[in-house]
């Protein structure tokens, strides 16, 4: 599943990408968003929908998803994208570290550089890690493997 944000929205600032393919009874993402950008019309088993006009790319919903299915992508730079992912492994990476960018199948696709790590107690052991990656892989890289 790729982002449904319009090209105009993608160029205007960071935005959420929800890759939640299965209809299961789950909706913490809806309550997590302070801007009411995520909704689930109908019932709790429907797939979440995003109002991209309301999403500010604030990152708050990323660690709230038990399925680790929420990401934020920033494509506003000319050369590279910043991708924010949920990260539950220890040790955490540090800003400035390099890592391997992994696709959805866990295959190494590129080198990435860590640009942000948010490891707040309120996020309940799920950190938010942001890394820079080649822009053309912004919707392929969904994990990292730390370099030794
Ligand atoms: S990134 Fe922020 S504004 Fe966008 S959907 Fe998630 S919580 Fe809402
Ligand atoms: S919290 Fe995550 S797994 Fe649950 S509905 Fe929202 S995106 Fe899907």
Strand arrangement across the biggest beta sheet? 1-4-5-8-7-6-9
Based on CA atoms alone, the radius of gyration comes out at 15 Å
Q: Report the portion of residues in β strands.
A: 25-35%
- Give the total of domains: 1
Instruction: Round the mean pLDDT to the nearest integer and report it.
Output: 94
Overall shape: it is: globular
Question: Whole-Å distance between the termini?
Answer: 31 Å
E-strand count: 9
Give unreliable regions as ranges: none
Give helix and strand order, one letter per element, not per position: HEHEEEEEEEE
Alpha plus pi helix count: 2
- Secondary structure category: mainly beta
Hetero groups: iron/sulfur cluster
Considering DSSP H and I runs of 4 or more, what fraction of the residues is helical? under 10%
The biggest sheet amounts to: 7 strands, antiparallel
Quick description:
With 148 residues, the protein is mainly β. The protein contains 2 helices and 9 strands.
Can you tag this structure with a few keywords?
148 residues; mainly beta; two-stranded antiparallel ribbon; 2 helices; 33% strand; binds iron/sulfur cluster
